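REQUEST
  id: r-88c1
  op: predict_structure
  target: Gfo/Idh/MocA-like oxidoreductase N-terminal domain-containing protein
  payload:
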Amino acid sequence: MCSRLAVVGAGPLVGVHHCRAVVALQNMDVELACICEKSAEDNTASQEFACKLYTDVRTMVMEEELDGLVLSTPTHLHLQNALDCFSAIQARRAAGLSVLSALLVEKPICESLSAAQKLVEAAQAAGVKILVGHQRRHSPMVRMTRDVVQSVDFGPLRGFTAEFAIMKPDEYFSNDPRLLWRKERNKGGPALINMIHDVDLIRYITGDDVANVYAVMSGAARNNEVEDTGAVTLTTQQGAIGTFFFSDAVPSPWSYEFTARENKKYPPVGDRDCYHFMGAQRSVAFPTLEHFTYGDAKGWDEPLITTRTEVERKDPIVLQMAHFVRLCRREEESVCDGRDAIQSLAIVMAAIRSAETGVPVKPSQLLAESSGTVDINESTAA
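RESPONSE
  id: r-88c1
  status: 200
  body:
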């Protein structure tokens, strides 16, 4: 039976790629049934994919027999869009009609921890499975790196470095009223929009959560309300220490976007790495998957043994959509559900809080604050 999907927010930067991913999965018997945009004038995607255009989420979910919905609107709209969807689901269920079973929410799940928790609780009440769009978890290169880092012969993780250094074009920060949120505090900025990707991958690849965060950030490049550059130190639950540098205002090839070469939007820059993971017995670079270790004799006087693992590059957006279809059909469990995504969001929020206060922040404390509980053993001080 054909799975019918809808996309809310089919913009050119992200949403339209979800539409194309659905079309690419015709062998799975899936259909892009409809698109929802803020205005009827935003009809570029609906015309490209020859599907019905709606301008109201609740109306669309009420009128259409859908199996899944992709929510690709600006982050600060996720909660309200999701609540409108869940309201329609409950109304359809009360009327004895079929209801959609899963929601793919673009990352970050929401703009705040409290909003994210409300979304997750509402989804649970509506009986809807959540997949958060941390699509890089589906990358074969990421999964191979995860296997390496979590293997016995890697040894305990000692540390890691990560970089997101890129230059966003001036038009990204256009004064188009629909895009002003990108420059607004608590809505835009590379920490919330971009670093969330890298933080989530660090959690996914290492299998370890972050215990403590210290960050400094600057907005000197553009003087917007949001940061453009920052440095973050992370300490994991198991004692590994990592550093992360980010900037969206520098000409550089050192980012997942440029090095992974999975998204054809970004011009190739050759074999370069954006992450390094260092264990007691082995180190590995990503995405080249170049390994460094010693033989029987170890130490700086001995030659390092270098090897490389070759992995086929595949589009993680398409792989994620295939997983989402299987989630809609109850064939698989979510690779990144709402509560998992909240853990990654808490790390970013801890970095932002640390940059504001000048002291280390524990993500667990922010989670406790947002849920209305207080742990007297938690402190923002290291």
